[in-house]
Structures are given as C-alpha cells and as structure tokens.
Amino acid sequence: MIDLEQKKLRAAIIGPGNIGIDLMMKIRRSENLELVMMAGVVAASEGLRMAKEFGIATSAESINGVLAYHATNKIDFVFDATGAKPHTMHAPLLKEAGIFAIDLTPAAVGPYMVPAVNMEQHINECNVNMVTCGGQATVPIVYAINRVAAVEYAEIVATLSSLSAGPGTRQNIDEFTQTTRDALVKVGGAKKAKAIIILNPAEPPIMMRNTIYTKCDTSKIESIVDSVQAMVADLRQYVPGYHLKVQPYADGDRVVTMVEVEGRGDYLPKYSGNLDIITSAAVAVAEHYAKLKSGEVTK
C-alpha cells in the first residue's frame, strides 16, 4: 500500500543506459517523485556512476538488486528501461512484490499507455507499457483523426537520427514495429496499421520526424485538422518539443501529416526526441499516479 503521508513516491530505474539516465534527470526535478534506486548489470556504467554521485542507491544485480532494496526500503514503482526480453522476466517479479511497473520496452506485458489518449483507463494497472517512441509520437494523431473520421488504415514512418538509436533500440527493431502497429489499432483506433522505422545517418543529426498516413473520409479534413491541433496541444503539456511539421491535408483518399519531436536536452541531445518523448510520457504517467495516490487529483 502507498503511504499517503509521504510527500513523494519512491521510484527505481532498471537499465542505466541513455533512457535510464534521461529518466533520472527528469525525476530529479519532480515535486512528486523521488528516485531512490538505479540498477543495471555493469557496475562501471555511466548511469550507475552518475546515480552514485547524486546519492542514489545503485546495484549491478539488475532486478535482484531492486527486489533486495525493496525488501528493506520500500519502492512504489519501477521504470524498466532494459529490453523486451528482460522485461518479460522482470514483470512477474515486480507484480509479486507489489511494485507498479512502467515499462519503456516493447515487451507489451501490460496494456499500452499513451498519456494524451488513455491515461485514466489503465492508471490502476500493476504494469503499463509505454509502447515505443514512434507509438508515443503517432498513436495520438491517429486517435485524433479517428475520433472524427473512422480510420480504415494507418501507416506511420518514424525517422530518427542513427546517433539517437542505442543498442536497446537496435536490438528491438522487430518488437518496435510490431508493438507500434498493434498500438495504432488498439489505442489509435485504426482498423489496420503498419509501422516503419528508419535510422538516418545524416550529419548534423536530424530531429525525430514521424509521417502519418491515414485512409479515412477526407471530406472531414477541417474537423480532422481541428482534432489534431487539439491533440498536439495536449501532448505539449508533457512533451514541449512536440509540434506539427506538416498540418493534416487530404491526398486522394488519405490524410497525410507529419510531426517533429525536439528533446528537452535534460541529458540527451535535443535531436534525440525519439528517446525524450518516451521518457517524458513515462514520467507523466508516474506523476499522475503519484497525484492520484496522494489525493491531489481524482479519476
């Protein structure tokens, strides 16, 4: 049970890579969250070194280190920033320990969570999946279009700088496309969908861009534009660098639009909007969870 008297909820991160470090920076400025633990498998990793400097407990025993810490120092929730396969092993252990899991891998053990679309629907689950960076960027747009014009088919192309795609992203390409596609249907509302990821080696590095194609009733383009613009405003509440690069327009029987994501630069370069959007979305979920448990907000 959550101690309602404590000011902040206590968090741990598994996976001290780029995503884990960026999460750490975001959590450190939160008024509702306290990072008490970071775990990985390499004791000399940059993430664990930085966490130690901040006075945060660390472990090179991954999930075992988190569970050992939790046994004597309660953890309220864990951000899992490892990979799809490790999370499938972590999820049942965290559930058994009564720790809320926010999964930043494409494992999709828990329901898909896209804050601007379905935050309230799944906030009381024991495990939520943050889909993928491409999913966080494009599912809201498909959802916004579908709420005014039924989407028969959605196809998204996520283009990101090769430099912002670390080992985790590269090792999970198949899971990325499958999970993003599934979320476009299950959360976005499209009847069918396809997701494509492109790693662009251009110098200087490009910002993350996502092109969204939707087959729908294009005669409703004015309502579609209004709906998409409203969704972008909602997203910018937790991802300030999210904006429309190309406003929705009709092209035959489809609507085309493009969004660009610039990162905040908390730890990662600003061109790494693909990583920033998923860490920002994960922290938005944790913040809302903490406010619910404290009674600051209600469902």
Automatic annotation (TrEMBL):
<comment type="similarity">
    <text>Belongs to the acetaldehyde dehydrogenase family.</text>
</comment>
<dbReference type="GO" id="GO:0008774">
    <property type="term" value="F:acetaldehyde dehydrogenase (acetylating) activity"/>
</dbReference>
<dbReference type="InterPro" id="IPR003361">
    <property type="entry name" value="Acetaldehyde_dehydrogenase"/>
</dbReference>
<keyword id="KW-0520">NAD</keyword>
<keyword id="KW-0560">Oxidoreductase</keyword>
<feature type="binding site">
    <location>
        <position position="274"/>
    </location>
    <ligand>
        <name>NAD(+)</name>
    </ligand>
</feature>
<dbReference type="Pfam" id="PF09290">
    <property type="entry name" value="AcetDehyd-dimer"/>
</dbReference>
<dbReference type="InterPro" id="IPR000534">
    <property type="entry name" value="Semialdehyde_DH_NAD-bd"/>
</dbReference>
<feature type="active site" description="Acyl-thioester intermediate">
    <location>
        <position position="133"/>
    </location>
</feature>
<keyword id="KW-0058">Aromatic hydrocarbons catabolism</keyword>
<dbReference type="Pfam" id="PF01118">
    <property type="entry name" value="Semialdhyde_dh"/>
</dbReference>
<feature type="domain" description="Semialdehyde dehydrogenase NAD-binding">
    <location>
        <begin position="10"/>
        <end position="125"/>
    </location>
</feature>
<feature type="binding site">
    <location>
        <begin position="164"/>
        <end position="172"/>
    </location>
    <ligand>
        <name>NAD(+)</name>
    </ligand>
</feature>
<dbReference type="InterPro" id="IPR036291">
    <property type="entry name" value="NAD(P)-bd_dom_sf"/>
</dbReference>
<protein>
    <recommendedName>
        <fullName>Acetaldehyde dehydrogenase</fullName>
        <ecNumber>1.2.1.10</ecNumber>
    </recommendedName>
</protein>
<dbReference type="InterPro" id="IPR015426">
    <property type="entry name" value="Acetylaldehyde_DH_C"/>
</dbReference>
